[in-house]
Amino acid sequence: MIALPNDDNSCGWYQALPPAAPVTRLKGRQQADYAVLGAGFAGLAAARRLAELKPEARILLVDAQRVAEGASGRNSGFVIDLPHKFALEHPDPAHKQKLLGLNRAAIAQLQGLVERHDIDCQWSAVGKYQGAVGERGIAFLEHFEHLMKDLGEPYHWVEQAELGKVLGTGFYRKAIFTPGCYLMQPAALVRGMAEHLPGNVELLEQSAIRSLRREGNQWWLQGDNGEILTPTLLLGTSIFTREFGYLKNRLLPVMTFASWTRPLTDDELARYGGELNWGLTPADHAGTTLRMTADRRILIRNSYKHVPKYGASVSERMRQKIQADHRKAFLDRYPDLAGVPFTHTWGGAYAISRNFTNFFGELEDGVFASACDNGVGAAWGTISGTLMAEMAVGSDSRLLRDIRQVTGMPSLNPPEPFLGVGVKSRIRLARWQSRSEL
Description:
By secondary structure, the chain is of the alpha/beta class. The protein is built from 11 helices and 20 strands.
């Protein structure tokens, strides 16, 4: 039995959107030239590129939920150009330059779609801050500076007084600013792209696929009220790729959580005293991500959990504890805004690998996948989905050759219960070590 997404219904980004258009579901037997599972960043990009390359083909894009209800609509709204976290530590400069080129190709593609279709998603080229609170964080920043010099990318230090004028808080001692990151409203961006798919792409939502089998040269995708037959299947299913029997014991399901406020009033904005529309990620990877949106909401993101049963792994008690942790982080930074409530707290599941390797390739004849984004889904999902479509039709490009060179096979995980114990222990240790940065 395939375990389906089990997301909470309290994602602030999604709840801020206007009501969705009427849904079209999978019904009856459908024959398609290509089927794409998962309508997040990877699936949307794959379906669009297939339509461009094969304008006469019938392409079905299928999702178990509504578009933007899943992981792609739940992130913190960063589209990051730099190699991220552990990828930035790679010893081969050429490897990192390829990652940089892939990420920037994704950003250019997303910006083109936003401009072409006038997608209202707070898209903005404002860069991002990497912030530090204490000595541990500053040590990470100094190491980050070294990596940026090696990469040859622009950056500059921002000291506490100048940083406070932007963030509206003196909580952070220092930051490094990098200019290439874009910010956006992820649920609005994903839905906007889905609303402007090419004419030969049919979007089927709330259409969970319960089983997958091969018969002859056809793949059969069985849903509750219909089925799809196709010779070529593209999986943009992230962590759920393992539910179809692929990359078993190689993907770790992790959930990260965020809370945000309602929009600040004019009086609250005056007390806040900072700028609108900025984003800060922690120098210490286990620290707190902080955003002020263009529409006056403050977002706090931290707290990581191993979720072997996805959303079903998160109890109401756990959710309340996470929100309390977020509240403390908020009040540490903005004590003068103690009267501003959180309106939403949500989680999003994604895939990481123990060796921090992304999978991209053909799983078996006629099945292609991009899986394991290691926490950078917007840019990586977009470019890997695009190139997965090119691979599926036998195309070739410099970017396709690059992505093949920087991806590989996620390493095998230990069996349960050792895996769960190890992951939970590692998360607890990271939180304790990073407690000064939370």
